[in-house]
Amino acid sequence: MVDTVELEAAAFRRLLRHLNEARTDVQNIDLMILAGFCRNCLADWYREAAQAAGEPMDKEQAREAIYGMPFAEWKQRHQAEATPEQLAAFEAARQRHG
């Protein structure tokens, strides 16, 4: 029988590959509007899990683990400025979901 943790880890790695290789066009703000989380949220959750396991990790280390490169490099390559429409949709989603 396969360990559930192995399956979860494989699914997580596939999610990261999908976001960071296949769908670099999907902006974090779009993820936040539609799903309520983004790559930065994943990095925060990753860091929290590492720290809970006794592994020191800072924000930049966690983001590099999630983005597959330093965050500054990701931003330069893939992150566009949020449009007024995105900002308005983000604010509306934030108000709806707290």
Could you characterize what this model shows?
With 98 residues, this protein is mainly alpha-helical. It has a single domain (4-97), classed as Orthogonal Bundle (SMc04008-like fold). The chain has 6 helices and no strands. It has helices at 4-22, 28-35, 39-52, 59-67, 71-78, 84-97. Helix 3 packs across helix 4. The N and C termini lie far apart (40 Å).
Q: What would CATH call the class?
A: Mainly Alpha
- Indicate the low-confidence ranges by residue numbers: none
Please give the oligomerization state of what you see.
Answer: single chain
Query: How much helix is in the residues?
Result: over 70%
Task: Give me the CATH fold name.
Answer: SMc04008-like fold
Q: How many domains make up the 3D coordinates? A: 1
InterPro entries: SMc04008-like_domain, SMc04008-like_sf
Pfam family, one: DUF1244
Protein name: Deoxycytidine triphosphate deaminase
Domain SMc04008-like: 26-91
Furnish the topology, listing elements before pairings.
Blueprint: H1 4-22, H2 28-35, H3 39-52, H4 59-67, H5 71-78, H6 84-97
Helix pairs in contact: 2-6, 3-4
Q: Summed up, what is this model?
A:
It comes from Pseudoxanthomonas daejeonensis. Pfam families: DUF1244 (PF06844). By secondary structure, the chain is mostly helical.
Q: What tags apply to this protein structure?
A:
98 residues, SMc04008-like fold, globular, Deoxycytidine triphosphate deaminase, SMc04008-like_domain, SMc04008-like_sf
